[in-house]
Design goal:
The structure is a single chain. Helices cover 53% and strands 12% of the residues. The strands form 2 sheets. The protein has a 4-stranded antiparallel sheet. It has a 3-stranded antiparallel sheet with strand order 2-1-7.
């Protein structure tokens, strides 16, 4: 007989031995393959290729953005010494001047802005560079004085004000102007500084203007140039029509219809004009080598200039006379203009002036301005311009 002790239960194997002894499953083999050196190299290659493709796409997009938006902004427009002006700088300056004009309640001719602003930036740079040689310097106090003159309250003679009132009103006017024009104090002070340099060197060069000079008595009819007429909305008048009218009507009568310009009265009478005040008309007024001056009482053919078209009549002179205040100021303008023209010739020869005066820059600048609306809010504050 067999006792219960003879029925023995087989001893169970440890679980870890069972795990080692069981046959590998398919999933286990896949995991082994996935972690093999060959598979790791494959995955790494795929990752590297994906990163390279993404970097290439990003690089192409970045290069396109740079070519479209960044590079054109950095194209050199002018250089005066170490000072560089890019196309983007010209756009920024135009936007500043446009905002300033709107905040002051004035019109700003965007269409001709690039042709005016870049040359003025070049001239401002020339003046700043030359100023020390004329012993001319502009201080913060000079700028503050100009700002107070432009934005300070107007005080009548004998009028009294509370202590500190004028200063408060000046600050209120100035801050209001900056808010409306969206200009920073730094940017606007830079514009004012340029204006002061311009005024100072004009006065310095104006010291060379003589007090007495040869004059002729002048009448004229002045028509705006094609550019000025289109920007101001003035009618386009054919000078031939005026000449036909002058054959039938008095000069003063015709002049009243079409105007004599800034320097003439309503009848076209300019007065006594010194030599050099209007260089483009000097050959008519005073003659030149091989050319006789316009005879008294005769009407000239139309003279076309950048500033306008003139039909001139001389009635007396030449004779030496003392300069009027108006003509003295005009000769100061001409002195500065002549000096700047000389510097524009000397600068490139000496290597300190470079000016990309071409249509491509003007076209790009104008397109950028047209794409953006002015950021300014009229009406104008009290005070004038810088």
């Amino acid at each position: 007989m067999t006792t219960s002790s003879d029925h023995r239960i087989p001893a169970q194997q440890p679980s870890d031995r069972r795990m080692r002894s069981r046959r590998p499953q398919k999933a286990d083999r896949r995991m082994e393959r996935d972690h093999s050196p060959r598979q790791r190299r494959r995955r790494l290659t795929v990752i590297v290729i994906a990163v390279a493709v993404l970097a290439l796409i990003g690089g192409i997009a970045g290069f396109g953005y740079y070519q479209e938006f960044v590079a054109p902004n950095n194209v050199l427009a002018a250089r005066i010494g170490d000072t560089r002006y890019s196309q983007g700088d010209v756009v920024k300056r135009i936007r500043m001047l446009q905002a300033e004009s709107i905040a002051l309640g004035q019109d700003y001719q965007v269409g001709t802005a690039p042709f005016r602003v870049l040359p003025s930036m070049v001239e401002a740079g020339i003046i700043r560079r030359a100023a020390p040689s004329f012993n001319i310097f502009v201080t913060d106090d000079d700028i503050d004085t100009r700002l107070r003159r432009n934005f300070g309250p107007r005080v009548s003679p004998g009028e009294e004000s509370a202590p500190g009132q004028l200063e408060r009103e000046f600050k209120e006017n100035y801050v209001r102007f900056l808010d409306r024009s969206h200009l920073s104090d730094k940017d606007y002070r830079g514009i004012v500084e340029e204006n002061i340099y311009h005024s100072k060197i004009r006065e310095k060069l104006g010291e060379r203007v003589p007090t007495i000079g040869q004059h002729v008595e002048v009448h004229w009819i002045e028509l705006p140039s094609a550019v000025n007429a289109s920007s101001t909305g003035a009618p386009d008048v054919d000078p031939a029509q005026i000449i036909e009218l002058l054959e039938e009507e008095e000069f003063a009568t015709v002049a009243q219809q079409f105007g004599g310009g800034r320097y003439a009265d309503k009848q076209g009478y300019v007065g006594w004009v010194p030599e050099g005040a209007f260089p483009l008309l000097d050959h008519l007024l005073f003659g030149k080598e091989g050319v006789e001056p316009l005879a008294h009482g005769n009407l000239s053919d139309p003279v076309f200039t950048e500033g306008g078209t003139y039909m001139v009549k001389v009635t007396d002179g030449p004779q030496p006379r003392e300069l009027s205040e108006t003509m003295r100021e005009k000769l100061k303008d001409e002195s500065l203009s002549t000096w700047l023209d000389e510097q524009k010739i000397i600068g490139p020869e000496e290597g300190w002036l470079e000016w990309k005066n071409n249509s491509a820059i003007y076209a790009w600048v104008l397109e950028q301005i047209r794409q953006s609306s002015p950021k300014a809010t009229p009406p104008a504050p009290a005070g004038g311009q810088g």
